[in-house]
Write a structure and sequence with these properties.
Elements (H helix, E strand, L loop, with lengths): L2 H18 L19 H14 L2 H6 L6 H26 L4 H29 L8 H14 L20 H4 L1 H13 L14 H8 L1 H13 L10 H15 L4 H17 L5 H24 L2
Helix pairs in contact: 1-2, 2-11, 4-5, 4-10, 4-11, 4-13, 5-6, 5-8, 5-9, 5-13, 6-8, 8-13, 11-12, 12-13
């Protein structure tokens, strides 16, 4: 067997384990699903993760968790919600045309990321499981942000700089919007204005759809069960990122490093569509902003 084939086989096996390990406990590994990918990108990212986990910093840490783990534990849910609901929004929005698809990816990612973050924070704080923010409540928080007419550039991370390959404002400012919506939820500052004064008809159609609402709640229920693996390369990419995001960072510089490495490899890949890349970039923007938010506020 050639070296290249061996590397791809190695990537298959790692992808199988990692996709099946994305559960609420973060470290649970399941053999109930078997997923393989003939993906050079998966191989590259797997090798990156392995090289990072083999560093002296990780070896010297042993089984103990760094302080950063308390931030990444919540941010994990922000990222996952932004990615999963961004994909659902994109799927629903496609029925409305290209503009609807783009709008769906953004509004879905914002609702999923902020909503899941708020729920996870309350679970960690009170051990309660009934502090649920509905999609409508998150939307009202988003409208409250829109009413401010704020400059999102003023709310991007100050410690983490991400090197996106193109000027995609939606992806670039996804994390900033996420943090602003999350703060509105935590402050219970929900707008009473009709949402149609601030959201487009496409956005309202998407977040009001039965499929979006069901996907939002199903995603929460699935946090207590094994992740349903499929064969999308983009899903494996995000699962690999979430895995290293949980285990590697000691500080904001580490989050910046791993996130920019993922951006670099994803942008260079021809295995993902532009839509898939944009959703990944949006989720990585949430990762950086969310980490910094919880580092500053979770004391």
């Amino acid at each position: 067997m050639s070296i290249l084939k061996m590397k791809k086989l190695f990537g298959f096996l790692c992808a199988t384990v990692l996709v099946c390990s994305c559960t609420n406990d973060y470290t649970v590994f399941s053999q109930s699903e078997v997923v393989t990918h003939s993906s050079d990108l998966v191989v590259q990212l797997t090798e990156l993760n392995d090289s990072l986990m083999a560093t002296e910093k990780i070896a010297s840490r042993g089984i103990t968790y760094s302080e950063a783990y308390s931030y990444t534990k919540i941010a994990y849910k922000d990222i996952k919600g932004a990615y999963k609901l961004g994909k659902i929004g994109l799927k629903i929005g496609r029925f409305l045309g290209p503009e609807g698809a783009a709008a769906g990816a953004v509004i879905g990612g914002l609702i999923g990321g902020a909503g899941y973050s708020y729920i996870e924070y309350n679970k960690c704080k009170t051990r309660a499981i009934d502090s649920i923010a509905s999609p409508l409540q998150v939307t009202q928080a988003y409208v409250s942000v829109l009413e401010l007419d704020t400059s999102y550039v003023d709310h991007t991370p100050t410690q983490i700089t991400l090197n996106f390959p193109t000027i995609n404002k939606d992806a670039q400012y996804m994390g900033a919007k996420h943090n602003l919506i999350l703060q509105k939820l935590l402050d219970n500052d929900l707008s009473l204005s009709p949402i149609n004064q601030y959201l487009t008809q496409d956005e309202i159609y998407i977040i009001s759809s039965k499929e979006f609402e069901e996907s939002y709640y199903v995603g929460l229920e699935n946090e207590n069960n094994n992740y349903e693996a499929d064969e999308d390369v983009s899903d494996v990419v995000m699962c690999l990122y979430l895995e290293i995001f949980q285990k590697y960072p000691d500080k904001a510089d580490d989050v910046e490093f791993i996130t920019n490495k993922y951006i670099e490899l994803v942008s260079a890949s021809n295995e993902l569509t532009t839509e898939e890349k944009d959703i990944i970039y949006s989720a990585l923007s949430v990762a950086a902003s969310s980490y910094e938010y919880w580092e500053n506020n979770l004391k």
